[in-house]
Design a protein that fits this description.
single chain; 413 residues; alpha/beta; Rossmann fold; 2 domains; 7-stranded parallel β-sheet; 47% helix; globular
Length: 413
């Protein structure tokens, strides 16, 4: 199986290289991965002191790892934090993140690359976020007896670790000194295959969104646009989401809407401009002095303000549920917003939880979205109940970072 795995890694790397002339993300990953080892070896040559390596596959996993990094640097500023990404969507956006001392692409998971990488960074501790099972990296860490942890992990019975042919993946679990899981179901699954060193810590994203809400910044353009009225924010939307939202916007002319597309797609923005009856403005073309009296929709056509923008709203819709899966619901929930999203949400524990406490609903059509929204727009008691449930849920789930830090670093401070 290890031979097949290594062949698979090489084939995947070759596929990325072949796709690189035609796909921007593939091009960035190919170039970054190809140059990573040289860059790492040069950057780490004279680094001294305790080194913590944290790996996040992409931007979402980084947000889960971020509270851990920031706690490490707060408690032990001299600790050197090395942050790696696999995906360009993480690296390119966070390559200047100030709390990490060194930020790199993770070289492809081949035995040769692993040896060079570990020789270069000499980590005292390795931390992987959520779904990271690079078998050669784990094998290298195990042979060097480097304490290795998996944080904010969540497991499902369909994963390869729990299948009859998943022996090599079950062996990989043993590399982890401790696996910090999000829930009891994950711990039970691990115990069923013989892994007994898990701790239920919860999800560090709750700590992250709590910090975001506490540090939310003012956004003068959105404040001017809202103009003391009611605001509905749709975050990380895709085309199918926007078509459904257009009907809701057009049938509720007294309410103002912000739509933040997941990807800034000019054609989709033009489609919104052509199909929204109440007038459309773009955030990047607006100023706090603009007159928005004839504008019902503001398109948030930039990266960055969304997490703070939720603080201006009463209701939220989270996109992605008509595709591979919904995006971040917690940034909206921490502000106490009732949330709707598409049908593809079942892999996300927090979405299931928000539905169970009455703070969210899954919808499959514009009619279902309107049916969810109507009572929340007209019944103050119903809105308050859903809002309180969302805020209480996010507050009760905080604390994972404390548990993780106290266990990993209790004897290393």
């Amino acid at each position: 199986m290890s031979v097949l795995y290594n062949i698979g890694i090489r084939c995947y790397s070759a596929a990325i290289a072949l796709a690189s002339p035609f796909n921007r993300k593939a091009r960035l990953r190919h170039r970054g991965g190809r140059e990573a080892l040289r860059h790492i070896e040069e950057s780490m040559r004279d680094v001294k002191g305790r080194i913590v390596w944290l790996h996040a596959a992409s931007l979402g996993e980084f947000e889960q790892g971020r509270p851990i990094i920031e706690r490490i640097k707060r408690d032990s500023p001299e600790t050197v934090v090395v942050l790696t990404f696999f995906s360009p969507s993480g690296y390119e956006i966070r390559k200047d993140y100030p709390c990490a001392d060194h930020i790199f692409y993770l070289p492809a998971d081949t035995p040769h690359n692993v040896r060079r990488f570990l020789n270069a960074i000499h980590p005292d501790v390795a931390i992987f976020v959520k779904y990271e099972f690079w078998l050669n990296y784990l094998d290298g860490l195990r042979h060097r007896q480097i304490p290795t942890y998996l944080v904010s992990a969540i497991f499902r019975p369909t994963q390869v670790h729990f299948r009859p042919w998943g022996g090599i993946w079950r062996k990989a679990l043993e590399t982890y000194t401790t696996i910090f899981v999000q829930d009891e179901a994950s711990r039970t699954l691990l115990e069923g295959v013989g892994y007994t060193r898990s701790i239920i810590a919860g999800d560090t994203r709750f700590d992250r969104v709590a910090a975001i809400a506490k540090a939310a910044r003012e956004i003068p353009i959105i404040e001017r646009f809202r103009d003391d009225g009611d605001l509905f924010i749709a975050g990380s939307t895709w085309g199918k989401d926007e078509k459904i939202l257009a009907q809701l916007i057009n049938s509720n002319p007294a309410i103002r809407f912000v739509v933040a597309p997941h990807e800034i797609d000019e054609e989709r923005i033009k489609w919104l401009e052509a199909n929204i009856k109440g007038g459309v403005a773009r955030y990047t073309r607006s100023t706090p002095d603009d007159d928005f009296s004839t504008t019902q929709l503001l398109v948030l056509d930039t990266i960055g303000p969304l997490s703070s923008a939720y603080g201006y709203a009463r209701w939220a819709y989270i996109g992605g549920g008509f595709g591979v899966g919904i995006h971040n619901t917690l940034e909206a929930a921490t502000f106490g917003l009732p949330i709707a999203f598409g049908p593809n949400y079942k892999k996300f524990r927090e979405a299931r939880d928000l539905i169970s406490v009455g703070a969210a609903r899954s919808i499959s059509s514009a009619e279902e979205l309107e049916a969810w929204f109507a009572p929340l727009a007209t019944d103050g008691e119903a809105l308050q109940k859903a809002s309180s449930s969302a805020r209480r849920y996010t507050e009760e789930q905080c604390g994972a970072t404390d548990t993780i830090i106290s266990n990993i670093f209790s004897d290393r401070r």
